[in-house]
Design brief:
Length: 422
C-alpha cells in the first residue's frame, strides 16, 4: 500500500467529516489511508438470501458489512427451506460479529443447533451457504483469493469431469452430447446406471436388479466407455439405489471398463454394506455426497469402505470443513473428488478447495443441459475451458453474480436478497 503523509490523511479525513455523511466518510477515509492492521474491524450488518432452481434447488446467501463489502455463498440439494433457517436462526447470531472469525462463527452456529438438527440435512446445508459467503467476504476484505486463505495453491488449474446422466446406445441424442463432451476437452465423464424406467425392472420400489436389468446397465456403460478414447476416464453413478447383492454384481461387471469410480452402489448410510461391495471388487468405490461435516466421513475411512471420497462442498459444511475432510482422507491415502451440481458461484468456491488440497482427483460439473444459463450466471462469463478451471487471482471466490440471468431461474414466491421482515 502506498504510504500517505499525516497531512494528506488528515485532509482526507477532514473533507470526509465535512460531508453530509460525516461519520461514514471519516470511516472510509480511515479505511483508505491507514495500514490494514489499523483498519476498523468489519461488522456484519445483514444476511439475505435468494433461491434458484436449475439442476435442483440452490439457495444463494449474501452477508453484508458496515464497510460495503459483502460475501456470497451457495447451498444445494437440502437447500429447500434453508432460507428460513438462515433468517430465523443464523442471522441473529451473525449481526454485529466480525466476519473474519469464520471458524468461530461456524462452531457457534453448529453447536448452537445441537438439538435442532445440526448433525446434517437442511441445518448443515443452510450453515454451508453461510460459511462459503464468509470466506468470500474474507477474501474480498484481505484482497486475497480464497485458496490463499486455505493454505495456498497446490495447482493452478482444477480438473473437471462432466456428468451427463443416462444415454441410450447408438442414438443421435447420445452421440451429440458425448461428442460435445469430447470436443470440449473434458478428460473425464460420469453417467448414471440406475434408471427408474428400466424396462426390465420387476418392482417399482425394490431395486434388486434382475439378470436382464444388469445386462441393460452394462450395455449402456460399455457404449459410453467405447465412445471415448482410453485417455478419457469414466465414472458411473448408482445414486445409492441398489441392495448389496446387486451392488456387488454391478461392481464386478464394471471391472472390465476400468472405471475412475463407481459412485454409491448402495445407500451411503450403511458403512458395512458399502464395505461389503468394495471388498469383492477392483472397481474403485466412491461415496460421500449425502454425508455431512467431517464427523460424517470418519467411519467410512475407519471401515475401509471407500476408494474415493465425494463430499458435496455446497452442503457438507463448506470450504474449511471440506478441507478438513480432504485432509482426513489424505491420511488414509484416499483421493478427493467433490460432488458439485451448482452454479458457477458454488463451482468456483469448490475449485478453491480443490486447488488447495494435495489429494484432489476431479470436480463434478452437471449443467450440460443448461448451458445458456451457465455461461451467463456470473459477470465473468464462462469459468472453465477445455475441461479445466484456471484459478483466478481475484479476491474472494472470484466471480460475481449476473443478477439478470440468475433471477430468470428464481424459485417462484421466494425473496430475492430482500431485507428480512419478521
Amino acid at each position: 500500500m502506498e504510504r500517505k503523509s499525516r497531512r494528506s490523511f488528515l485532509g482526507a479525513a477532514g473533507a470526509a467529516f465535512g460531508s453530509a455523511f460525516g461519520l461514514q466518510g471519516l470511516s472510509a477515509a480511515v479505511q483508505a489511508n491507514s495500514s490494514p492492521y489499523r483498519r476498523p474491524k468489519l461488522k456484519i450488518t445483514d444476511v439475505r438470501t435468494a433461491e434458484v432452481r436449475v439442476h435442483g434447488h440452490q439457495t444463494h446467501v449474501r452477508i453484508y458489512t458496515d464497510q460495503g463489502i459483502f460475501g456470497e455463498g451457495e447451498a444445494t440439494d437440502a437447500a429447500d427451506g434453508a432460507s428460513a433457517i438462515i433468517q430465523r436462526r443464523f442471522r441473529r447470531m451473525l449481526i454485529g460479529q466480525d466476519p473474519l472469525n469464520i471458524d468461530f462463527l461456524f462452531e457457534r452456529m453448529r453447536t448452537g443447533g445441537i438439538f435442532a438438527g445440526a448433525q446434517g440435512g437442511q441445518y448443515v446445508t443452510a450453515l454451508t451457504g453461510i460459511e462459503i459467503a464468509l470466506w468470500d467476504l474474507a477474501g474480498k476484505a484481505t484482497g486475497l483469493p480464497v485458496y490463499q486463505l486455505l493454505g495456498g495453491k497446490m495447482r493452478d488449474k482444477v480438473r473437471m469431469y462432466c456428468d451427463s446422466a443416462r444415454h441410450e446406445p447408438n442414438t443421435p441424442a447420445a452421440e451429440e452430447m458425448l461428442s460435445w463432451i469430447r470436443d470440449e476437452g473434458f478428460t473425464a465423464v460420469k453417467i448414471d446406471c440406475d434408471d427408474r424406467n428400466n424396462p426390465h425392472r420387476h418392482d417399482p420400489v425394490n431395486w434388486t436388479a434382475s439378470n436382464r436389468e444388469i445386462d441393460y446397465m452394462v450395455e449402456r456403460v460399455g457404449y459410453v466407455r467405447n465412445f471415448f478414447d482410453r485417455d478419457i476416464d469414466l465414472a458411473v453413478d448408482g445414486h445409492g439405489r441398489f441392495d448389496v447383492p446387486s451392488g456387488r454384481r454391478l461392481a464386478k461387471e464394471f471391472e472390465q471398463f476400468e472405471l475412475m469410480f463407481f459412485e454409491e452402489p448402495v445407500p451411503a448410510e450403511n458403512v458395512k454394506a458399502m464395505r461389503d461391495v468394495r471388498e469383492i471388487t477392483t472397481t474403485p468405490i466412491c461415496c460421500g455426497e449425502n454425508r455431512f461435516l467431517r464427523h460424517g466421513f470418519t467411519d467410512l475411512f475407519e471401515a475401509n469402505a471407500v476408494d474415493v471420497i465425494m463430499p458435496d462442498i455446497q452442503k457438507c459444511g463448506g470450504l474449511l470443513e471440506s478441507r478438513k475432510i480432504a485432509d482426513a482422507a489424505h491420511s488414509y491415502y484416499i483421493p478427493f473428488a467433490p460432488h458439485c451440481v451448482v452454479s458457477p458461484i458454488g463451482t468456483m468456491a469448490s475449485a478453491h478447495v480443490c486447488a488447495a488440497v494435495p489429494n484432489f482427483l476431479a470436480l463434478e460439473w452437471h449443467w450440460i443441459r443448461d448451458l445458456d444459463i451457465w455461461k451467463n450466471f456470473v459477470q465473468e462469463g464462462e469459468i472453465f475451458s477445455k475441461g479445466w478451471i484456471e484459478m483466478p487471482d481475484r479476491p474472494g471466490i472470484g466471480v460475481t453474480m449476473n443478477e439478470e440471468a440468475a433471477k430468470s431461474r428464481q424459485v417462484p414466491g421466494t425473496p430475492w436478497f430482500e431485507e428480512w421482515k419478521y
